[in-house]
Amino acid sequence: QSVLTQPPSVSAAPGQNVTISCSARSSKSAYNFVSWYQQLPGTAPKLLIYDNNERPSGIPDRFSGSKSGTSATLAITGLQTGDEADYYCATWDSSLSPDVIFGGGTKVTVL
Amino acid sequence: QVQLVQSGAEVKKPGASVKVSCKASGYSFTTFGITWVRQAPGQGLEWMGWVSAHSGSTQYAQHLQGRVTLTTDKSTTTAHMDLRSLRSDDTAVYYCATGSVALQTLHFWGQGTLITVSA
Question: Is the pLDDT of residue A106 over 80?
Answer without folding.
Answer: yes
